[in-house]
Amino acid sequence: MTGIITVEELTQAIKNSPNNRGIDEYEAKNLALHVLNFFGYSERIIDNILEPEDRDAFYMLEDNAILTTEREETTLYDGREWRIHYWLFRRDKIDQLVENHVSSVEKGAEITSVYDELPDDIWNRGSEQ
Q: How many folded domains does the chain comprise?
């Protein structure tokens, strides 16, 4: 998976994050939409566009390794140093979290197929015992 991060991919990554186990589809999708609205088609965004409650969501995703930060330092005309902080998606981690979902779905399919091999009368609880 490469290129633009989709709502579906980010939703799945959020749901599969270790710290977000139990988050429902609706909440994960809303968070994904909220975060993607800041990025649009960009690979990174500047931190100072965020409100404190938005930044909290970004920190949560950073804790789950979905987002990361970087900073750039520049010298202003008057000689002062200025730091610019950015947020970036960790595409590698998002792909890994999405892939974990795909493999767990496949494993789940294998487990349920075990029941297909059982004979029909295995579930009978008659007086035959």
A: 1
Residue 20 pLDDT greater than 90, yes or no: no
State the average pLDDT for the chain.
85
pLDDT of the residue at 1: 47
Residue 127 resides in a domain = no
What is the pTM assigned to this prediction?
Answer: 0.71
Q: For residue 21, tell me if it sits in a domain.
A: yes
Rounded Cα distance between 8 and 33, Å, is: 9
DSSP H helical segments within 40-90, as ranges? 52-63
Enclosing domain of residue 59? 7-115
Q: How far apart are CA 107 and CA 112, in angstroms?
A: 9
